[in-house]
Amino acid sequence: MRIFNLTELGAAIRSARSAKGLSQSNLAQTIGATQEWISRLENGRLPNPGFANVMQACTAVGLGISIDDDSIQPVFDAPDDQPADLAFTTPSFLKRQ
């Protein structure tokens, strides 16, 4: 299943939670969140739920997350003939115009 936004992510978590027979309160207790946070996550109403929090919720309901799009290519500042040193390369979005 591919998920393209937080609303779809929340629906997938809700479906998996329901399939496991967990209530929102059960899931919240399992991951150290509140029932309200779970509700907002499932309804796509958390603008930035935090990746670690989402991972915990997904793991608790038996969902995995994978990144498999090979068409995404990183952009580096290094010339093509030299590998970029990620520790010292400034991402283009942080450069001053």
Automatic annotation (TrEMBL):
What region holds the HTH cro/C1-type domain? 13-71
Q: Which InterPro entries match?
A: Cro/C1-type_HTH, Lambda_DNA-bd_dom_sf
What sections of the sequence does the record tag as coiled-coil?
none
Q: What PROSITE patterns does its record include?
A: HTH_CROC1 (PS50943)
A Gene Ontology molecular function term for this protein is: DNA binding
Q: Which Gene3D superfamilies match?
A: lambda repressor-like DNA-binding domains
The name of this protein is Helix-turn-helix transcriptional regulator
What organism, scientifically named, is this protein from?
Aminobacter anthyllidis
